[in-house]
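[recover] target loaded
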């Protein structure tokens, strides 16, 4: 096991990792920006090093500063959490060059799955279902248009280096292709420095269902069941649940086996998720692979009684996994509580929390880094807490979650709690009838 782990992140995920490390008897080092000097991850780590100013570029994305912090504190491993450098192949490689274990996959694995066109080609090769579309990147707009005519509209253009919904455009008819191409390529170029595009058939009434996987250093991989992440706004997830309302034993088996194939195809090490789109006929298609721990990992932990961070650290330290796949024994749901105003187009709402009461009780878990008097900085992601509810059935889970959200008192900033309370009373949501398009017609 490692002697000391540095957490190259902030907020609730940094605190989450520190908690597991303490339970494993492994000392921790927090890194922080000047804006986060009063954050709980700084307080609860065994050591803390300031690595720069409030700007992510100067701190949480500042690789030389993080490596310097690791060296002066004599750590032998770095946990990147999610976001920031978690899927940065260069950072993984630099850690390796400095004899520091990156708790996650190698640079080669990240590159293999990080480039969506390469990932799709790999999946096709090993027989994982993929969405009809271009083989690799499009040479130009003319090639894209010809392919769209061949596979039929609607289609979707996607930036190969994309994320967060940037560089993506749905196209419903041929005459709109040129305009969509220009918008997508320009946005991708300005956001990622790479305007390269690929094209796919657009899946109507899609569900976004991901399979949690884990692989060790010895070629073994297993799946830990699914999560439904279809409630999204601008490709950002708002609520997740497991099991998915559409899941059957047969579909779970097929998707689980496909996810294991995907992991084994690249000799995957660590935890990750294989993301699929599922159409209304329950056909599923590989979308992408996330080579890190996910924001929504707690719901999986709650239904299978499995500490994903602990297993991730153990795998990185060279321990073997059993290779056994897990299936949900209960139902769990996660609401992401963001410091945003849902009545004002989800505008960010940074500021000081003047009053705070966190919910509790049976079946409720809260992952958060905030406290009364904490000042939410405007420089980072607006998520301030995750409320996780678990019960025997979906109906009971919804009632437990509602009760918890009604107990949750937070004053001084706007939050998405009112949105979640309204969502949990929507008749279509209650029936499990929702797709990734749900938020397009949902009104506060």
């Amino acid at each position: 096991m490692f002697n000391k782990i540095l957490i190259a992140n902030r907020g609730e995920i940094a605190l989450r990792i520190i908690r597991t490390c303490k339970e494993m008897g492994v000392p921790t080092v927090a890194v922080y920006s000047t804006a986060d000097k009063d954050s709980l991850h700084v307080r609860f780590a065994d050591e803390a090093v300031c690595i720069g100013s409030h700007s992510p570029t100067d701190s949480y994305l500042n690789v030389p500063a993080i490596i310097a912090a690791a060296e002066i504190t004599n750590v032998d491993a770095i946990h990147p959490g999610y976001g920031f450098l978690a899927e940065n192949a260069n950072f993984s490689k630099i850690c390796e060059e400095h004899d520091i274990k990156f708790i996650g996959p190698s640079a080669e694995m990240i590159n293999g799955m990080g480039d969506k066109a390469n990932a799709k080609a790999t999946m096709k090769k090993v027989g994982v279902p993929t969405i009809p579309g271009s083989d690799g990147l499009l040479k130009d707009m003319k090639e894209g248009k010809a392919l769209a005519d061949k596979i039929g509209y609607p289609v979707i253009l996607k930036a190969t280096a994309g994320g967060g919904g940037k560089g993506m455009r749905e196209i419903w008819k041929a005459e709109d292709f040129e305009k969509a191409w220009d918008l997508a390529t320009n946005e991708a170029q300005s956001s990622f420095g790479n305007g390269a595009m690929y094209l796919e058939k657009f899946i109507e009434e899609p569900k976004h269902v991901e399979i949690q996987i884990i692989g060790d250093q010895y070629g073994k991989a297993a799946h830990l069941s699914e999560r439904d992440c279809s409630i999204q706004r601008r490709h950002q997830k708002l609520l997740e649940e497991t099991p998915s309302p559409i899941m059957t034993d047969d579909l779970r088996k097929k998707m689980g086996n496909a996810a294991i194939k995907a992991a084994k195809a690249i000799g995957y090490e660590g935890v990750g998720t294989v993301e699929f789109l599922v159409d209304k006929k329950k056909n599923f298609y590989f979308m992408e692979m996330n080579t890190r721990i996910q924001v929504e990992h707690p719901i999986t932990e709650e239904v299978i009684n499995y500490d994903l961070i602990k297993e991730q650290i153990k795998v990185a330290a060279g321990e073997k996994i059993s290779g056994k796949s897990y299936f949900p024994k209960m139902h769990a749901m996660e609401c992401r509580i963001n410091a945003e105003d849902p009545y004002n187009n989800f505008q960010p709402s940074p500021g000081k929390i003047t009053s705070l009461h966190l919910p509790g009780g049976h079946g409720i878990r809260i992952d958060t880094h905030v406290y009364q008097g904490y000042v939410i900085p405007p420089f980072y992601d607006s998520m301030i807490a995750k409320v996780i509810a678990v019960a025997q059935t979906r109906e009971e889970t919804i009632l437990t979650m509602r009760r918890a959200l009604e107990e949750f008192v937070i004053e001084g900033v706007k939050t998405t709690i009112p949105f979640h309370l309204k969502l949990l009373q929507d008749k279509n949501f209650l029936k499990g009838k929702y797709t990734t398009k749900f938020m397009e017609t949902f009104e506060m």
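[recover] notes: The chain has 14 helices and 22 strands.
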